[in-house]
Design goal:
- There is one protein chain.
- This protein has 2 helices and 8 strands; from the N terminus they run H-E-E-E-E-E-E-E-H-E.
- It has helices spanning about 1-25, 135-145; strands spanning about 30-35, 40-50, 55-60, 65-70, 75-95, 100-120, 125-130, 160-169.
- About 20% of the residues lie in helices and about 50% in strands.
- It has one domain: Porin, CATH 2.40.160.
- The protein has an 8-stranded antiparallel barrel with strand order 1-2-3-4-5-6-7-8.
- By secondary structure, the chain is an alpha+beta fold.
Length: about 170
């Protein structure tokens, strides 16, 4: 029983030391990124805060919103997971002589996962290949088609895989 208690105590001390090291590695600076794609609320700006050298949290606003996290495998390659606005449907009413009036814009949220590359964590270009759950937007598109609207886009959900492009400063 003494051996188990010693092992538990050693583990607890090691964890607190590791946690202190991770806290020291965390940057107090907030980095900003602007871009296009699901990582940037479709078109917008994010604020990024490092938790440690590997993990970063972010939130952003643009045509919608986005919140998420990034895990860095090294200084350039990262895994990104977020939730936010990832689809827009715009209903258009055509009138006389094809003059048109926008009748409604609908925004849809979902989870997004991807892998990306950034040239520098301090400032530089980034690109991420993202998989997005756009099932809510696809369901709404089917409803609109059943109501008599014509879709100008692709209804086969091929837009689940997208790119996010941005610049960090």
């Amino acid at each position: 029983m003494k051996k188990i208690n010693i092992l538990i105590l050693t583990g607890m001390l090691s964890m607190s030391t590791y946690a202190e090291e991770m806290a020291i590695e965390a940057s107090s600076e907030v980095e900003f990124e602007a871009g296009i794609g699901v990582n940037y609320a479709l078109l917008g700006v994010t604020a990024n805060k490092s938790i440690n050298s590997k993990i970063e949290l972010f939130a952003g606003l643009g045509l919608g919103y986005v919140v998420g996290g990034k895990y860095y495998f090294n200084d350039s390659v990262r895994f990104t997971a977020n939730y936010g606005t990832n689809s827009i449907i715009q209903k258009i009413l055509f009138g006389v002589n094809y003059n048109y009036t926008y009748t409604a814009t609908e925004y849809f949220e979902g989870a997004n996962l991807g892998i990306g590359y950034i040239s520098s964590k301090k400032n530089g270009w980034s690109i991420d290949l993202m998989y997005s759950d756009i099932s809510k937007a696809n369901d709404r598109t089917k409803e609109l088609i059943n109501e008599g609207y014509t879709s100008l886009g692709n209804n086969n959900s091929s837009e689940k895989i997208t790119l996010s492009l941005g610049y960090r400063w």
